[in-house]
Structure formats: structure tokens, C-alpha cells
Amino acid sequence: MKTTFTLLFLFFFCSGSIYAQNFEYGKFTKEELDMKIYANDSTADAVVLREFGSANIDLDNYTNESYVNFVYHTRIKILTKNGFNAANFVIERYIYDKKQDEISEIVATTYNYTDGYPKPTILPITQVFTEQKTRYLNLTKFTLPNLRPGSIIEISYRLRVNNIFNFKSWQFQDNIPKITSTYISSLPAIYNYNISLRGAQKLTSQKTELVRDCISIAGNKCDCSRSIYTMDNIPAFKEEDYMTAASNFKSAISFELQDVRHFSGGTTNYTKNWRDVDNELTSSREFGSQMKRTDLFTAQLPVILQNATDPLSKAKAVYAYIKKQIKWNHYLGKYSEFQIKKALETHSGNVGDINLALIAALSAAGIETEAVILSTRANGLVNSLYPVITDFDYVIAKVNIGDKSYLLDATEPLLPFGLLPLRCINGKGRVVNLKKPSYWFDLLASEKELTRSNLVASLSPDGKITGTLTTYSKGYAALERRQKIAAAGSADNYVQSLAERLTNIKVGNYKIDNIDSLDEYLIETYEVTMNSFDKPGLDKFFYNPYFLDRTTKNPFNLNERNYPVDLGAGVDRRVSITLTLPADYVFAEVPKNSAVGLPGNGGRYQTSATIDKNELTFSSLFTLNKPVYQPDEYLFLKALYSQVIQQQKTDLVLQKVK
């Protein structure tokens, strides 16, 4: 469940005054010192005993610039060795207009309860490190020392945030449970923020009061709205496979600046409408101006399009050309970082450089092309209530040919035409046109993860199965396999690594077709030999036909999941086996066919087997027809996997004819 409320920062006043303050550093209760397990979650490896944060807008005395003054303090109980991870801290420090968020007053201590009182070990400041994550983000990292089960760790610090647009969000929920978490925001009356609470957990309390003359701005005293948000008994957020950014679902509160009302009477709007954003993007030197650089491709077009006769083949030729011309430097971005002319010259660029170049080249070829800005899966979902340009971290191309549209990303050399990388499959993108208003467009996978495996083999009396295995892959399955071949350096190396992983299967001669024909099935053919049993000559032995694509672990283990299962794309996996048996062996019983499915045609698993004389024909089908399953479908999906696992444990019994 996701709960959202929006406040247009109209003040809500409580009678009387609100009292809430930071807790005292290094002063513990007996219950905190003696805690062995957390009563509300006996499986917890660590628990946040207390957490406090406060943020207010302040003014720099030298530059007269506004900034957010943020104070953080937490105390955590380590319950097991697995809880040591809770002692790793990472603090994000963003860079705006070449100014980095500043961290100060870091205090970090580990307390171990010995000889009747807690003995502190203070983290040396020399063990605090800074890592450059991207050009716009640095990470301050440190790990608390002298950890043991039973330790209490405590940290506090102050952070100066130079960008007041997003104020300072607060995350109530994390990967370990919290007993209590309190956040205080103090916002001057002239600043009008949209405030959103997301996640399944509810606030325990929320109180707001008016504080008179809390700040002086340009010589004018200004009142503030001081709000206290408290959440108690917060369960740990359990991450599972097949989810987008955890930040989409953890209970948190965020702030986005809507407008500033000046003392002179005017107002500066920061929350814009899409018309404003469209104008900002199309007139930007790093975005719209790059889309218009069709002149850079005029001379090359006759060569690029020499074998193309129709709009689709022309689009494919341009797409292939850009993929070869500019190598992705693995930086994201909706804007061109170097400008596409330089990216073409240096053959390197970020996402914006590559895909804005693609848009310009397609336009130069006379193909209707638009830009689509989006937020990647790791970045989180975009705000659909009002435009927030900072929500978007990526740009792709949208090609319109006839009544069909194709979404293109030229950053990945092995992506077929029209297939997006899974990182881009995340809700909706905003289509930006140089001449028309922008609009939303669904970001959907154009193909499933599709595999077909076919084994034709014979079983000899000594237990060896010898035959030919052919696998057909398309969509994301083919992309993954082609990437592995490329990473291995050659098909020979890829097959060798494959043979090393398949410990029970020996791989002989092989053939791989369509490695470079990205729009076609990737076809792998192998001569294989495997042992079905270790002791030949037995009157009875067991054979399991699920050695191909066997499911041994259920990816869904929660009793309840409050966020969707997001696969990104549907799944279609099929296995077919034709096995010739020795003349003196038969199946003890005819294998039973099975079929289980999800409600609403959401997916199914079925098997069928037939025996004709000494030949077994076996097939299995596993499909997930929806890219996204909602929380109320979770238990059905979990049950489907459980039945698949149980079914695939079933052996077929062969016995010798007497």
C-alpha cells in the first residue's frame, strides 16, 4: 500500500506548545543495555532504539544564501553478528552548482556493557572516508569499531544541505526495525512546500505549531511552522527479488518546494506546470539544442542508409550506427554532458549524449522521433501529481513509424531494436517534442524473457544420457546470454565457462547462431553427455526430467508483501525432452500430467509426459503473463512457485524388465 497526502503548506496550529527534543548522547536505560532480542521481531539482528532528526532553513551570514541545517542522531542495539551491517553508515552529500553538502560534528561510538557499565570505543575521525559516487554525489562512509553481539552503537552528525528545493526527506522505515523515529521540520512561512508521506506504515502522531520570529531574512523577521512527525514500532522493510527501488515503498516523508512568497509581495514559483518544463527542456543547451543537431549527420546519412529502403530499415540503420559510434561511459543523465558533437568525436558519452545524438540522427533521416525522459528503476518512481524535473535521470528515443511506436536506447550494444534495458522499465516516461506539448507514455517491455530448450537423447544401460541440446532465446533471455558471450571474449570461452558450471553435464561440439543478429533468436546447439544414475545394473532407478531450467528456491518468502512484484517483463520458458530408453527398461508407472495457474490468466505451470514403447516425450511450460503483480496477488504467486518446486522434485521410476 502507498499512502500519499499533499499539504500546500498552509499552517496547522495546535493549542499550546509542542515539546520534542533530541535524546541525550551516551545515556542508556537498563532495558537498552540488557536487551537480548527485540520482542516485536525475534528474528531481528539489530534494532534502532531511538532515532531523531531535525531540519530547518537557515541563512549563510557571508553569502546570504539559504540552506537546510539538518541534525541526525540514532542509537542502535546489535543483537547478533549478522547485525554488524547496521554499523555501516553511508551519508549522501550532493553537489549543486559546484557546491557540496557539508558534513560536520560527526560523533560515532560503540558501547559494550562490561563490568557493570557501558565502555565506549570512539570512532577515530581518520576512519571516516569520502567516495565519489557520481559527478553530482559524494558518499561519506564509516563503520563503528569493536562490535559484538549486545553492543550499542550511537552516531550523530550535522549536515548542511545547499539545495532547499527538496528540503530534507526523512526515512522512517529501514531494513532493521525501529522502536521509535521522530523528525522535526521547521519551515519559514514564506516557503510553501508540498509534503508527501509514502509507504504502508502510518504516523503515530503529527503535531504542528507556529513559532514566532524564528528566522530573519533580509532584515525581516519571519514566523515558522514547526512540525513533529513520530512513528513507533516500525517493522523492518523486507526486500525481495523483483522490485523497483526500495525507496518507492519504505515509509518516509518528503518535501518539495512549491513557491516562495517575498516580503515585497511577489511570489517565485518553483513547482512548474508541464508547459514550463517543456520550454525549459526544449530551450536547454544540453537537451533541446542537442536534439536539433541534425547537421552533424547530414554528410554520413548516404552511407548509413545505403541499404535501407523504408522508414523502419532506416531507423534500424541509424540505431546501429549510433551504438557503434558512441560508447557509454556508464553515467546516467537526461542532459548531454559533453554535447553530442564532442561525444561523436571522442566516441564516448553519458546516456544523454548517446540518446540525444540518436534522436538528432533519426530526425536527420526524416524519421519522426521524440525524446522520453524517465526515472530508472533504481532511482524510484516519478511524481505524477506535478512536474519535478529532478525526478528524471534518463532519456531515450521514441520513434513513430505509421501507427506504431518504438522505444530505443543506444547505450547497450547488444540491445535489439525496440527493446529497452530493464533499468528503464519503470512506470511512465514523459515524451518531449520540440513542437508539441509533452505527454505521458507507458514504459513497457516489447518482448518477454523467452527461452525454448529441446533435448533429443538416448539413455544407455550404464546410465549415460547422450544427445543434442538446442536452446532458443529471445528478448531479455537472449540479451543476457549475448552479454555473457561478450564478457567471456569469445564463444569458445563462453562454452568453456558454461561447461564448468554444469558439473553433471559434459559439453562436446557446439554451434551458436545469430550472436550478432540481435533481432533474431539466439540459437545454441550442444552435444551433451550426462549421468542419470551412478550405479548401473540396478533393477530399478530414478530419473528426474527437470535437470533443465529447474527451480529450487522460491523467490517469494514473505507472509505478506506490501509492494508489487515487478518483473519488468513477462516470462515464457518451455522445455521439451525426447528420451529413448534401453530396450530392457520401462517406466514403473505412467508419469502424471500437471497444471497449476494464477487467477485471471496471470500465468501457469504445466507438464505433460507420454510413453510410446521405449520412448519418453516430456514437456513443461512456465509462463508469467504480467510484468507487474500487485500485493493482493502475491500469495498466489508464492503458491505457484511452491507447487513448481514440489513438482520438480518428482522422479520418474524406471525398472528393468524381467
Automatic annotation (TrEMBL):
Domain DUF3857: from-to ranges: 70-207
Organism for this UniProt entry: Pedobacter duraquae
Keyword Signal in annotation: yes
Protein name in UniProt: Transglutaminase superfamily protein
Keyword Glycosyltransferase: no
Keywords, sorted A to Z: Signal
Transglutaminase-like domain segment(s): 305-377
Gene3D superfamilies: 2.60.120.1130, 2.60.40.3140, 3.10.620.30
Signal peptide: 1-20
Cited InterPro entries: DUF3857 (IPR024618), Papain-like_cys_pep_sf (IPR038765), Transglutaminase-like (IPR002931)
